[in-house]
């Protein structure tokens, strides 16, 4: 929902007040009709840029206004701090402004500014055009955009409790309770509990006739404890699936209820024996599988990487254009879906930053690669006539480019084993929960992953915690060894608030859903040998 | 986009005059971030971002709150001050909140915004791309690169009368060349350069292109321990892995490699690294030309962190220093970092190597065990086998698992220290002076065949 002046005043009265910033975009929003994109103050401002770009000879232009509020409340050892975990790196940041993107002479130009005035919009549009013109001397191919219909729309994430409607006092009290509970537990030397909120309002207008206004709320709570026992220190994180939703994510996360268990596991981890080096079956919980999916499935199937656009930084991909429809990515149980429409998905939107309507599509079916992530600029490289809608920019100041959507491993069909049945069916394995160390090559083929907590599985039983667990994954071999996935009842959608890509680096926030997965005979523990 | 000292002081003074509280601090940040990206030898993105912001922090006793705005008109500033004043009164007391830093602070003078970097524009960057991609075309490789420019101003002012201002302009040129069949890849680059004329796009392109061509058809070697010659870029990344361990609080709380055996003790004064490992923060270094403003506006001073392997100083932030009854360090280990180099060229290092690896680049380094500084990462963009003093051919990339706590005892030769960014990306200040390093017994744990 768009903010009204009276809401602003009301918010000021509550202690969520600093969520709303003090800049011109806030004033314009307060004056705007909201939910009617063509009646918004931003329609007129957008038309200034689009008209100026046309006058300057640009073949395409768009202007994107955003207001981004990252608000991360952290309580560490009973102290409220501005540092630590969160969207964009912690603390609170509020910003608003606009970016203008043009194509002139077949080349992109982009410029941005936080000063939302007609004169500045004209200046920035001219600057973006100059940048494009200057770039044309070293162009070897021209930008080709897949067609997209013109949309006029308003879209918003459904929110039960807006984070700004909850007082800071209440948020701090909620996090303090977790601190207090954890610091009463034996061997705990440090605790940090957090709730990270990300609010994104954006208004996109394109020279092809779209005027799209969107509001997105993302919420990511969690806590981490550190234990010291037997001369060793270990941390344990209580992972909560972050969602596009409001404060209800924190209330529904059962954080306090899990403090005792998480603290006990941190302490036990300190004295847990090393797993040693060898081939083991690994069972991945959804909170762990999330990161493996992110690194060796989601990144590897970004089309811009495959065609070399990221060669200088994030890297390319082991996937080749010719692999589409042929590459055996995993076993028959391995099905992967990209989805920007699923409720709660961190990358779920109405439209991407190219103005393409969001959708769901298959990436892997029964182990075969069948789809890739595309945007308007890259769709033609695989002969597709339409974009899959994967363009995103972190904020107004950043240029939009291809970012991953939510990418999930699908749950098994009815009759698939439960997590308990997967454990009972495993003779010599290790159960891995949560995120740990992760490192992956620039083509997403050789990964080394750790986790947050590990249990030995012997003859179908979860016996004791173990330590020093990493495993090595050669992407296609790894998923070929997938021999059990649980059903939809245990499918969960975890996510990350800090997916970095691009130059200058931008941050994306994808979700990755997964069932429990078992991978047969993977090398574990080699990093510590 | 440039912010002069007077312009910034007007803004910070305005905030300080408007805000009523026991203490007020204003941080200013703004300027121009520009960049040109290219891939497949053609520009793919070219941009200029303008930004400006003030972060206002007010405090009442031990209560404090902050907020940021990007608008500097009176109404916007008044509104954010009202918000932050209200917010601070409702926050719990923070026992770790330190008093505002008082003037005078004697900052080392650093001239860091030289005209050629300030004026480095999109047309000049595009010409640099063209020079580079023309060479790529002649050599039959594809160029993918990044030319970032940052012209930025930071300032900090507070109600005790402190005003500290620093403006800088720097640029980098980073290039990956790949063969069209995707079987070869090479990297070259220079970062954080304050004098743009020092960027040799042609020379760097020759190096990256030749590495790409020479890295085709790599052979697979057995994982194991190798002598490695780290060129400055992988050396800088590797060096960065031990910087956080210099934090005194983490060490004294038992959470760090620098923790001593007894609870609360540290390894300060111990010889932890080899004789040839010396690390300093040289505030005012004439090549780096980096900020002299330390924590909360304290004047940063040169600090020797490690001298000939002995830990000489740990970083005490203001709170931890007061609690432990020490002087705050003011200078953090990331500031104006200089690792003492040697005189051995990479060519000489190769000549004296019986069997080893020449490493161009480290990629995706992540911690495996914080207390031992065990990290993992991979080689990338040019890995070559050396036998009997000569490069004999390319090698498939390796994943490694190793700790600088071990390796910095095994350095056998050092090159001259050169500017190189220690971070994974190149966007913010983070360039240090780092030498190429020859290190024995570096643990390569598996083949990583990606090119």
Please tell me about this protein's structure:
- The complex is a heterodimer of chains A (529) and B (451).
- With 529 residues, chain A is α+β, with helices and mostly antiparallel strands.
- Chain A contains eleven helices and 27 strands.
- In chain A, strands 1, 2, 3, 4, 5, 6, 7 and 8 form an eight-stranded mixed sheet that branches.
- In chain A, helix 3 packs parallel to helix 4.
- Chain A starts with a helix and ends in a 5-residue tail after the last strand.
- The relative contact order of chain A is 0.13.
- Chain B has 451 residues and is an alpha+beta fold.
- Chain B contains ten helices and 21 strands.
- In chain B, a hairpin with a 2-residue loop joins strand 9 and strand 10.
- In chain B, helix 4 packs parallel to helix 5.
- Chain B is globular.
- The mean pLDDT of chain B is 96.
- The chains are: A alpha+beta (529), B alpha+beta (451).
- At the A-B interface, strand 2, strand 3, strand 4, helix 4 and helix 5 of A face strand 1, strand 2, strand 3, helix 2 and helix 4 of B.
- Strand 4 of chain A pairs parallel with strand 2 of chain B.
**Major pleated sheet of chain B:** 9 strands, mixed
* Average predicted local confidence, pLDDT of chain B: 96
> In percent, how helical is the residue content of chain B?
10-25%
N/C terminus separation of chain B = 40 Å
Main β-sheet of chain A, in a few words? 8 strands, mixed
- Rg of chain B: 24 Å
Shape of chain B: globular
Number of helices of chain B: 10
Distance between the termini of chain A: 55 Å
- In angstroms, what is the radius of gyration of chain A? 24 Å
What is the count of helical runs of chain A? 11
Structural class of chain A: alpha+beta
Low-confidence stretches of chain B: none
Q: What is the averaged pLDDT score of chain A?
A: 92
Shape of chain A: globular
Which pair of chains forms the biggest interface, and how many residues does each contribute? Answer: A-B, 91 and 93 residues
> What is the β-strand count of chain B?
21
User: What structural class do you assign from the helix and strand content of chain B?
Assistant: alpha+beta
Oligomer: heterodimer
């Amino acid at each position: 929902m768009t903010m009204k002046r009276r809401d602003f005043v009301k918010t000021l009265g509550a202690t969520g007040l600093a969520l709303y910033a003090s800049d011109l975009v806030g004033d314009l929003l307060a004056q705007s009709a909201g939910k009617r994109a063509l009646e918004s103050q931003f329609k007129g401002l957008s038309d200034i840029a689009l008209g100026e770009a046309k006058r300057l000879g640009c073949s395409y232009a768009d202007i994107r206004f955003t207001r981004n509020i990252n608000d991360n409340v952290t309580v560490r050892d009973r102290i409220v701090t501005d540092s630590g975990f969160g969207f964009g790196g912690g603390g609170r940041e509020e910003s608003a402004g606009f970016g203008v993107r043009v194509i002139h002479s077949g080349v992109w130009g982009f410029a941005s500014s936080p000063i939302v005035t007609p004169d500045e919009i004209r200046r920035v549009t001219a600057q973006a055009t100059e940048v494009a013109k200057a770039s044309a001397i070293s162009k070897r191919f021209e930008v080709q955009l897949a067609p997209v219909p013109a949309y006029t729309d308003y879209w918003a994430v459904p929110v039960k409790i807006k984070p700004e409607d909850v007082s800071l006092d209440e948020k701090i009290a909620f996090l303090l309770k977790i601190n207090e509970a954890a610091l009463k537990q034996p061997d705990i030397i440090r605790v940090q509990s957090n709730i990270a909120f990300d609010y994104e309002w954006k208004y996109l207008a394109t020279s092809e006739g779209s005027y799209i206004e969107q509001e997105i709320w993302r919420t990511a709570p969690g806590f981490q404890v550190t234990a010291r026992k037997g001369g060793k220190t270990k941390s344990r994180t209580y992972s909560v699936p972050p969602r596009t939703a409001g404060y209800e994510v924190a209330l529904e996360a059962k954080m306090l209820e899990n403090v005792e268990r998480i603290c006990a596991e941190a302490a036990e981890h300190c004295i847990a024996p090393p797993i040693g080096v060898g081939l083991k079956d690994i069972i991945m919980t959804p909170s762990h599988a999330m990161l493996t999916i992110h690194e060796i499935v989601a990144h590897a199937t970004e089309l811009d990487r495959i065609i070399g656009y990221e060669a200088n930084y994030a890297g390319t991909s082991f996937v080749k254009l010719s692999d589409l429809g042929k590459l055996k990515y995993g076993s028959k149980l391995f099905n992967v879906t990209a989805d920007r429409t699923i409720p709660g998905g961190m990358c779920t939107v109405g439209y991407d930053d190219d103005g393409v309507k969001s959708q769901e599509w298959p990436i892997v079916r029964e182990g075969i690669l069948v789809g890739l992530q595309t945007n308007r600029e890259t769709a033609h490289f695989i002969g597709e006539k339409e974009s899959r809608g994967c363009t995103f920019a972190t904020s107004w100041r950043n240029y939009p480019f291809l970012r991953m959507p939510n990418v999930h491993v699908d749950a098994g069909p009815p009759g698939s084993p439960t997590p308990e049945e997967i454990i009972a069916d495993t003779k010599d394995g290790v159960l891995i929960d949560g995120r740990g160390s992760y490192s992956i090559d620039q083509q997403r083929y050789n990964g080394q992953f750790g986790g947050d907590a590990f249990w030995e599985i012997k003859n179908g039983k979860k016996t004791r915690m173990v330590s020093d667990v990493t495993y090595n994954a050669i992407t296609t071999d790894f998923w070929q060894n997938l021999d059990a996935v649980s059903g939809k009842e245990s499918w969960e959608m975890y996510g990350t608030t800090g997916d970095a890509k691009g130059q200058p680096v931008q941050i994306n926030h994808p979700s990755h859903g997964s069932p429990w997965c078992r991978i047969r005979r993977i090398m574990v523990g080699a990093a510590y040998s | 986009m440039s912010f002069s000292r007077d312009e910034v002081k007007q803004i910070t003074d305005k905030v300080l005059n408007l805000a009523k509280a026991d203490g007020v601090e204003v941080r200013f940040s703004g300027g121009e971030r520009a960049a040109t990206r290219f891939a497949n030898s053609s520009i793919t993105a070219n941009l200029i971002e303008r930004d400006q912001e003030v972060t206002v922090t007010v405090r009442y006793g031990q209560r404090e709150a902050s907020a940021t705005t990007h608008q500097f008109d009176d109404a916007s500033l008044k509104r954010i001050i009202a918000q932050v004043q209200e917010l601070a009164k409702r926050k719990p007391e923070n026992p770790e909140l330190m008093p505002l830093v008082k003037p005078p602070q004697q900052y080392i003078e650093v001239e860091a915004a030289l005209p050629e970097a300030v004026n480095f524009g999109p047309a000049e960057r595009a010409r640099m791309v063209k020079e580079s991609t023309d060479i790529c075309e002649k050599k039959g490789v594809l160029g993918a690169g990044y030319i970032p420019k940052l012209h930025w101003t930071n300032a900090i002012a507070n109600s005790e009368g402190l005003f500290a201002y620093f403006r800088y302009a720097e640029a980098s040129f980073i290039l990956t060349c790949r063969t069209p069949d995707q079987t070869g890849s090479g990297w070259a680059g220079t970062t954080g350069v304050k004098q743009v004329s020092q960027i040799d796009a042609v020379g760097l392109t020759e190096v990256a292109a030749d590495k790409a061509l020479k890295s085709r058809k790599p052979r697979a070697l057995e994982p194991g321990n190798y002598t490695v010659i780290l060129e400055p870029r992988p050396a800088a990344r590797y060096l960065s892995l031990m910087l956080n361990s210099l934090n005194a609080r983490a060490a004294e709380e038992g959470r760090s490699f620098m923790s001593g055996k007894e609870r609360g003790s540290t390894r300060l004064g111990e010889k932890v690294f080899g004789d040839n490992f010396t690390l300093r923060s040289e505030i005012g270094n004439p090549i780096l030309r980096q900020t002299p403003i330390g924590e909360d506006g304290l004047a940063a001073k040169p600090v020797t962190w490690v001298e000939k392997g002995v830990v000489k100083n740990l970083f005490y932030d203001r709170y931890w220093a007061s609690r432990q009854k020490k002087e705050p360090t003011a200078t953090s280990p990331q500031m104006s970092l200089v690792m003492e180099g040697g005189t051995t060229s990479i060519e000489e290092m190769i000549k004296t190597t019986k069997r080893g690896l020449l490493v161009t680049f480290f990629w995706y380094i992540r911690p495996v065990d914080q207390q031992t500084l065990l990290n993992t990462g991979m080689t990338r963009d040019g890995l070559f086998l050396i036998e009997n003093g000569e490069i004999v051919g390319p090698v498939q990339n390796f994943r490694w698992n190793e700790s600088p706590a071990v390796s910095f005892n095994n350095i056998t030769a050092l090159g001259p220290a050169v500017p190189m960014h220690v971070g994974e990306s190149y966007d913010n200040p983070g360039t240090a002076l780092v030498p190429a390093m020859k290190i024995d017994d570096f643990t390569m744990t598996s083949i990583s065949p990606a090119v």
